Fold these 2 entries.
Entry 1:
Amino acid sequence: MRYEVNDPVRLTDDGRAILAIDQTLLPNRVAYIRLETPKEMFTALKRFQVRGAPCIGIFAAYAMFLQAKVFAGECQDKETFYQMMHTFAKYLSTARPTAVNLPWALKRMERTAANNMRRSFETIIEALRKEAENIHEQNIETCFTIANYGLVLVNDGDGILTHCNAGALATSRYGTALGPLILGAEKGMKFRAYVDETRPRLQGSRLTAYELTNAGVDTTLICDSMASLVMSQGKVNACFVGADRVAKNGDTANEIGTAGLAILAQHYHIPFYVFCPTSTIDVTCDDGSKIVIEERDPDEIKNEFFRSPVAPEKAKCYNPAIDITDAGLITAIITEQGINYPPYDFN
Ligand code: MRU
C-alpha cells in the first residue's frame, strides 16, 4: 500500500510500530509519535493523540497485528496466543467506549486470527497484516465514495457548518463529513465552511480549520455558541457532521454539541447530514438510549488549552464527550453505500 504523509496512522517502515500524527499538537506543530507497547497504544487513544472513530479503528487493527507478532514469540500454543490477543483487544477497547469502529476493527482482527488458527504462526501474522491493511485501504475508498455522495447534496457556493473533526485526521485521506468540502475544493468549487470550535477539546478549531484551510476551503471559525446566530443570518445551507456510533434506528452519537446543532438546524429549516462509513453503524444497538456516553476528565473544561484556570477551583465540572442526536433531526445519513433517508432501519 502507498502511504501518504497525511495518513494519521500507519506502520513504521521497519514494521515494528505504529507511526501516528500527534493530534494534540496541531495546528502548531506536525509531529509523529512511535507506538510500540500496549501501554503506549492505549495512552495514545486515551490522550487523543490518535482520535476520530474510523482512525481509531485503523489504529486498533495495526495494534493487533503488532501485538500478534509479540505474542507469537512468547507462547507455544495457539490457544494461549488467541487468549492473549483477546485480552489485548479488551484492554484497548476500554480506551474509548463510544466509537464503535474500535471494537469493530478489534473483532475483525480477532476473527482473522481465529480463521487461521490451524495454520503456522507465520501465516497467521501475515493474514493479520493483510487484514489491517485492508481495513486501512477500505477506509480510504469509503471516504472517497462518501465525499462524492456528499457533493450531490449541496451547491457550489453553499455555506456548510461542521462540528468537531471528521476529516482526514479522523479517518484517512478525505475524511467523512469534510470529504465533500475537500473534494469540492479540488474540483474548483467554492464552499464557505463555518467551523464550530468544539469545546472543550477544540477539535474544530485545531483540526478542522487546519485541514480545511490547507485544502483551500474558505473557512470561518466560530464559537459553538454562535451557531444559532450564523444560521439565523442565512449563512448556512447545510450542516455536515461525522459519527462515533449510529444505532439501528438512526440515532447518532457524536462529539458533544452535535445534538444541539441538529435542534438549531431544525428550527432554521437547515438540512442536517451525518456522514459515516457503514462500520460506524452498530446494528446490535436498537436506539441511542443504549449507547454508552464517554465522560472525560472534568479538568479539561477549566484547564486544557488555557494558560491559567478559567474557573474557580471549587466549581465542579461535568464533561460528557458525546451526545445523541435523535434520528428525527437527521435529514440523511450518508455512507459508502449511499444516501439514506428516514425512517432509518439499518441492518
Ligand atoms: O475527537 P473525537 O475522537 O472525540 O472525535 C469525535 C468526532 O467528532 C467525530 O465526528 C467522529 O469520531 C467521527 S470522525 C470521522
Entry 2:
Amino acid sequence: MSGRLFVIGLGPGDARYLTQDAVESLQAADALYGYGPYLDRVPVRDGQSRYPSDNREEGERARAALRYAAEGACVALVSGGDPGVFAMAASVCEEIEAGPPAWRTLDLAIVPGITAMLAAAASAGAPLGHDFCALSLSDNLKPWELIERRLDAAAEAGFVIALYNPVSKARPWQLSHAFALLGRKLPATVPVIFSRAVGRPDESLTVTTLQAAGEVGANMATLIIVGSAETRVVPREGKTPLVYTPRGVAKVMA
Ligand code: SAH
C-alpha cells in the first residue's frame, strides 16, 4: 500500500473557515499530526490516531509524519491558517529534500487554508487592496538585523506590511522597535490594524495609527497590518472604521 501525506491548512479558527478540500482530507486520514491546540480544533473520528506535539518541534513532527506515511499510512499534518505561510509545508519540504529518497515519491498534497493575514484584512475592510508584503517578526529562524532591513525596505517601497508572530514571551521588545523603525520611513498617521484571534469567539479588532501603535497590546494570536501612506480610514457611526488601500497610486512619490 502506498502512503499519503496531506499537509492541511485549518484556516484561522472556526470550522466554517475550513475548505471542503481540508474537510475531506481530514476525514481520509488514518493519523493526525500537529501542534496540540490546532489538533484540538479537528473533530474526532473513530479509528483515527492523533499525535499532538509542541510548538517548537516542527522538524521532528514533519519527519514523524513522513515516516508514518512512508510505511503506507494516510497521514494528515495540520497547520493553522495556510500551511505554506510560516508553517508546516516548508518544514515538510525541507525534510523531504534532506531525507531518504523514498520520501520524494510519496503521494504529497498541500491543502491550502485561509491565512491569518487575509482573515484579518477582511475583518477591517480592504487594507491589502494594493501592493503588500508579509513578514514574520520572529527571530527564531533568522537574525533580527535581517528583519530590520526588510522592514526598512518594505516601508521604503510603499508596501502595506502584514506582521506575523509580532511578539512572544522570549521577544518582548521587538515589536515596539519595529514600530519605531517604520516610523522613520512612514507618516505617523499611517493606519495600523491589530487583529486578535480572528475567526475565533474571542476575536477583536483595533484600528489605530503608527504613532499610537505601541500602546496597543499584541500577543501570539495577533496579526498586525501596517498601512502604507495611501491606506485610508473611513469612520462609520457605531462601527469600527473601514480601512482600505485604494487599488491605484496616482504618481510616484519622490
Ligand atoms: N500558518 C499561519 C501562520 C503561522 S505563524 C497562517 O497562515 O495564518 C503564527 C502567527 O500567525 C501568529 O503569531 C499570528 O501573528 C498569526 N495568526 C495565526 N492565527 C491567527 C488568528 N486567528 N488571528 C490573528 N492572528 C493569527
